[in-house]
Design a protein that fits this description.
33% of the residues lie in helices and 22% in strands. It is of the alpha/beta class and 432 residues long.
Length: 432
Amino acid sequence: MKLPSISFLYELYKQHPQIQTDTRKLKLGDLYFALKGPNFNGNIFALFALENGASYAIVDEPIANSEPVDDRILQVDNVLSTLQALAKQHREQFTIPFIGITGSNGKTTTKELVYTLLASHFKTYTTQGNLNNHIGVPLTILSIGADAQMAVIEMGANHLKEIGSYCEYAMPTYGLITNCGKAHLEGFGSEEGVKKGKGELYDYLRNNNGKAFVMSDYDYLVSMSAGLSEVITYGNKTGALQATAATVNGFLQVNFSKGAPIETIQTQLVGDYNLSNVLAAVCIGQYFKVPIEKIKSAIENYAPSNSRSQLTRWKNNQVILDAYNANPSSMKVAVDNFAKLAAENKIICLGGMKELGVATFNEHQTLINQLQQTTWAKVVLVGNEFKDCKHRYEYFDTAVAAKKWLNDQNFTHHTILIKGSRGIQMEQLIAD
């Protein structure tokens, strides 16, 4: 059987530009790509997809019970690599700026801020939610319409050569690494491994005449970006664009000291660690000549969601909900920021940090040692990552158990920080 070529599939895609990998979300006319993984096999749903409105199903296994063979079933060698090759074919149709964003912490918030302000002035497409992996990146590219003027692509990674592989079909013309910290140590092996992995974005840009926006306070990013055709800098103490952080009514205020024709931006973000995220967005906005009033308005009106630096209320308590993800670097700055916060009756609820491998115990004990340097109203630790650590704090195996305890305490007029890795689901602590 002759396999369909990428050019043939691309012609189909142009006729049916909506791609779906989940039959539960299928809409009439979608192209269904039957992806498979350790715990699922989309091939078995190919006929179901066609029966429920898919125009074609792209599979990589023979489909049983399809006699006579449905000519809308197209078999390829590998569905995932075909999806990625199709994304590359689509990417090659554009000459617009493609901005790749990666980093250990803050990449999703930065992506959202960059997208929000660019979209105020250009037709802009971006990664939805955190679809920043080997499936999400090609799907993001394939969602970009012919009217696009800008594209912002978030790239996540937990091992070496991952960012490099995304670049092969995302083909970024600009790049931004938020930072390199202690994240995904199980996959990267060390902080140096993290830098090498994230630095694959710079490597691609260096080899393809790309440009980068660089947080110049981080010496390692300055070193890593050496040799790029253009580096646009920002920072707290250095860079062409500079600003400092203040807290006003619990929210970050950005006070510019260099490189911006405005004095302040009042955000709806919590924590001065978001300063670099805002600066990155302003830096990009100014580079692409977005009017400063649009930049200011876009950032001031941006309200975080999905448990990222959200300021909310729960039972007459103020809550900082930052439970989407966590690693040793982001935990440290979150705890430091919370310790400095001018508030009484502070409760800190932390979930375990995933994907740390052999560093799991040491990093969690280090976090506890940091907590012990501050007096808190209560400290709550959740997840078996803390189980063997030495401490005198409240401990629970699961967020469900912690939620029951928290509800039973009837706290009022407290300020609560909730943070942890996605897998712990710390947002459950204040869920209805």
